C-alpha cells in the first residue's frame, strides 16, 4: 500500500539517528553521557503537580479549542510582567507544545511549493514540518566565525523570492545558542514589512540568555505587529517538556482566526496539563527564572572553557539556550559520534554527541561540527569533556 512522499521524505532527526548505537553501547555495559539531549534535567516545579491535584475536574472534558481562559490570561500577565509585552488573552491560542504551534502556523501560512526563509544551521525538526506541508526552504548561512549572527541584509534578501511567505527565526537559537540583537531583529522585521510576509519568531528559549543579555522578543516592535507570530512553550521555561503546552501568539486577527480553525479541528489540548501550566504562570516569577538561568549559565561557562582547552576544537561561546556548536578536528562528525558509541570507552564510559549536518540545508555543511547540549550536571559535563578529549586523541591516531 502507498506511503505518501510527504511522509517518506521526512528524515530521521539528527538527535535520534544515533539512538541504536547508544542502545548497543549500553547493552555492551558502557555508561553513556548525554551531550545530545535538548531537554532540561531540572525538576518541573511542584506547583505544576499541586494545581492538578487540587483541581476540581472530575470528568476530563474537552477544553476550549483556544485553550483555558485562565491559562491565556496568566500567559498574558506573564508577557507584561516579564517582557513588557502587551498581548491579550484573545491574542494567544494554546497548543500541544511549541511543536503544534509551529505546525498550525506553517499550515495557516503556506501552500505546497511556497518558500520559507531561514538562517542555517537551524532546529532540525522544522524540516519534518516543511516536508509535511511541502514547503521549500531557502536558507541563508549564519557563520560560526560571526557567532552564528545574521549575515548582512543583502545576503538575506538574495534568498527572498516572490514565493517567500515567511521568515522563521529561532531566538535564542537551537542549535547555535545565539541571541539576536535588536538591530538584527529590526532587519528581519523590515524585510518582512517591506515584502508583506510573516516573521515566525520561535522564542521557546527566551528566558535563557546569559551575561546579562536580554533576548528581545519580536513582539517588542509595534511597527511589525501585523507580521509577527510568536511560538511559545512551557517545555524549557518551566522544565516541563512532557506537559505539551505551548502557544501561538499574534496580534494579526485574520491570521489568528485561521489558526483558531486549526485548533478547533483537533478539539482541545490536555486539560490537566493546562491546569498545571496555569499554576506555573501564576506562581513562578522572576526569582525562579533567575535561578534557572544561573544554573545553565554556570554550565555554559564550564563547557565553554573545557572545550577551549581541547586541542583542535573550535567553539562559539553560546549567548543563550543550552546548546553549543563545536567544530571538531575530524573529517566527519557523524562517523566520529558513531565511533564513540561503538568502539570507544574511557574507563567504561563514553559520550553521545549530535552531529551537526542535519541542522544544515546546504549539502556537506557542518560536517565537522557537533551540537552539544548542556542539560546535564556540571560534574557530568566535566567527565564527558574528558572522555571527548581522550576519544579525539585516540580517533585521530587510528
Ligand atoms: C527551537 C525549538 N522550537 C520548538 C521546540 C518544540 O518544543 P515543544 O514542542 O516541546 O514546545 C523545540 C524543542 O526542542 C526547539 O528547540
Summarize the structure.
This protein is an alpha/beta fold and about 400 residues long.
Descriptive report:
The protein is α/β, with parallel strands linked by helices. The chain folds into 2 domains: 5-43 and 287-396, Aspartate Aminotransferase, domain 1; 46-285, Aspartate Aminotransferase, domain 2. It is 39% helix and 15% strand. It is built from 13 helices and 13 strands. It has a 7-stranded mixed β-sheet, with helices on both faces. The chain has a 4-stranded antiparallel β-sheet with strand order 9-10-13-12. Strand 3, helix 6 and strand 4 (136-141) form a beta-alpha-beta unit. The mean pLDDT is 96. The structure holds pyridoxal-5'-phosphate (PLP).
Q: What Rg do the Cα atoms give?
A: 21 Å
Give the distinct bound molecules.
pyridoxal-5'-phosphate
Extract low-pLDDT stretches.
none
Q: Residue-averaged pLDDT, rounded?
A: 96
Q: Which architecture of the largest domain would the CATH scheme give at its second level?
A: 3-Layer(aba) Sandwich
Into how many domains do the coordinates divide?
2
Overall SS class? alpha/beta
Question: Helical residue percent?
Answer: 25-40%
CATH topology of the largest domain: Aspartate Aminotransferase, domain 2
Largest sheet, spatial ordering of strands: 2-8-7-6-5-3-4
The biggest beta sheet is recorded as: 7 strands, mixed
CATH homologous superfamily title of the largest domain: Type I PLP-dependent aspartate aminotransferase-like (Major domain)
The percent range for strand residues is 15-25%
Amino acid at each position: 500500500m502507498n506511503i505518501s512522499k510527504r511522509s517518506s521524505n521526512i528524515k530521521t532527526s539528527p538527535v535520534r539517528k544515533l539512538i541504536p548505537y547508544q542502545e548497543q553501547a549500553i547493552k555492551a555495559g558502557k555508561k553513556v553521557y548525554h551531550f545530545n539531549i535538548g531537554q532540561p534535567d531540572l525538576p518541573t516545579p511542584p506547583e505544576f503537580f499541586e494545581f492538578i491535584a487540587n483541581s476540581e475536574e472530575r470528568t476530563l472534558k474537552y477544553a476550549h479549542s483556544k485553550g483555558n481562559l485562565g491559562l491565556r490570561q496568566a500567559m498574558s500577565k506573564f508577557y507584561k510582567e516579564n517582557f513588557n509585552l502587551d498581548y491579550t488573552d484573545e491574542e494567544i491560542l494554546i497548543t500541544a507544545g511549541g511543536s503544534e504551534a509551529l505546525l498550525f502556523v506553517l499550515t495557516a501560512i503556506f501552500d505546497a511549493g511556497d518558500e520559507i526563509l531561514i538562517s542555517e544551521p537551524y532546529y532540525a525538526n522544522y524540516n519534518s514540518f516543511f516536508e509535511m506541508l511541502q514547503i521549500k526552504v531557502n536558507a541563508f548561512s549564519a557563520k560560526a566565525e560571526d557567532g552564528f549572527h545574521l549575515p548582512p541584509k543583502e545576503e538575506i534578501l538574495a534568498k527572498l523570492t516572490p514565493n517567500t511567505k515567511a521568515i522563521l527565526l529561532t531566538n535564542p537559537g537551537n542549535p547555535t545558542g545565539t541571541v539576536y540583537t535588536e538591530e538584527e531583529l529590526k532587519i528581519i522585521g523590515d524585510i518582512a514589512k517591506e515584502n508583506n510576509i510573516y516573521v515566525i519568531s520561535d522564542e521557546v528559549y527566551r528566558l535563557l540568555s546569559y551575561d546579562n543579555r536580554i533576548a528581545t522578543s519580536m513582539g517588542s516592535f509595534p511597527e511589525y505587529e501585523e507580521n509577527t507570530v510568536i511560538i511559545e512553550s512551557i517545555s524549557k521555561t518551566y522544565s516541563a517538556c512532557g506537559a505539551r503546552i505551548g502557544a501561538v501568539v499574534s496580534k494579526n486577527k485574520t491570521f489568528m482566526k485561521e489558526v483558531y480553525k486549526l485548533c478547533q479541528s483537533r478539539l482541545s489540548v490536555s486539560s490537566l496539563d493546562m491546569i498545571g501550566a496555569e499554576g506555573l504562570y501564576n506562581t513562578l516569577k522572576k526569582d525562579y527564572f533567575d535561578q534557572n538561568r544561573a544554573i545553565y549559565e554556570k554550565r555554559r561557562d564550564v563547557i565553554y572553557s573545557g572545550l577551549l582547552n581541547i586541542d583542535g576544537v573550535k567553539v562559539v561561546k553560546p549567548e543563550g539556550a543550552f546548546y553549543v556548536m563545536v567544530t571538531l578536528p575530524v573529517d566527519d562528525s557523524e562517523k566520529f559520534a558513531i565511533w564513540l558509541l561503538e568502539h570507544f570507552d574511557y574507563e567504561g564510559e563514553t559520550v553521545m554527541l549530535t552531529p551537526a549536518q542535519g541542522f544544515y540545508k546546504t549539502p556537506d555543511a557542518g560536517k565537522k561540527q557537533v551540537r552539544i547540549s548542556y542539560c546535564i550536571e556540571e560534574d557530568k559535563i566535566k567527565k564527558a569533556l574528558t572522555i571527548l578529549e581522550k576519544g579525539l586523541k585516540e580517533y585521530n591516531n587510528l
